[in-house]
Amino acid sequence: MPLSLAEMRRNYTLQGLQDEQALDDPLAMFGQWLQQARDTEQPPVEANSMMLATVDSAGRPHCRVLLLKGLSDAGLIFFGNYHSDKGQQLTANPHAAMTFFWPAMERQVRIEGQVVPLDPALSDAYFDSRPLASRLGAWASPQSRMLASRASLESMLEQTAQRFLDQPIPRPEHWGGWCLQPERVEFWQGRADRLHDRLDYRLLNGGWCRSRLAP
Ligand SMILES: Cc1cc2nc3c(=O)[nH]c(=O)nc-3n(C[C@H](O)[C@H](O)[C@H](O)COP(=O)(O)O)c2cc1C
Question: For a surface tag, which of 1, 49, 55, 151 has the fewest beta carbons within 10 Å of its beta carbon?
Answer without folding.
Answer: 1
